[in-house]
Amino acid sequence: MKKGLILIPMLAFFGMSVSAGPIKPVRLTVVNKSGLPLEIRLTGENDNSYYLRVPTGNREFPTEQKFSIVPDTYRMQPYYIELWDPVYGYRCGGAGTKTVYAQRNIKITFLECNYTPRHRGGTFNL
Questions:
Q1: In sequence order, what DSSP letters do the residues of the chain get, joined into one string?
Q2: Higher-confidence residue: 77 or 27?
Q3: CATH code of the domain containing 109
Q4: Which residues span the domain enclosing 112?
Q5: Tens digit of pLDDT for each residue in 61-116?
Q6: Residue 33 falls within a domain, yes or no?
Q7: Domain total for the chain?
Q8: Which residue has the higher pLDDT, 10 or 98?
Q9: 15 in a domain, yes or no?
């Protein structure tokens, strides 16, 4: 009888641990068409934090970089890196912190600072 009482909680604990499983990362694809190198700060609601670097790319030859991140809701702040200020970079004019819902694979495209596209189909203007 005592073995049965001990066995039941152990099986329940094992069942919960197997069902939770490992967290599957999502893919964040960043396309840089800004003409400057980018640095992107992601701060998640669940204490996840990333600082991503994307090399220079332009409209003719965009740079595409893929990152694996933990699913979360992130606050995203991009920085455009200039040669005269390679340490801190600058934030684009009126662009504040944006929210990124990284629950599945997503793709974000960065254009030149203060450029407004004709349509916004999947393109952030930050």
A1: -HHHHHHHHHHHHHHHHHHH-PPPPEEEEEEE-SSS-EEEEEEETTS-EEEEEE----SSS-EEEEEEE-SEEEEEEEEEEETTEEEEEE--TT--PEEEEESS-EEEEE-STT---S--TTEE--
A2: 27
A3: 2.60.40
A4: 23-124
A5: 999 999 999 999 999 988 888 766 555 556 665 556 788 899 999 999 988 876 66
A6: yes
A7: 1
A8: 98
A9: no
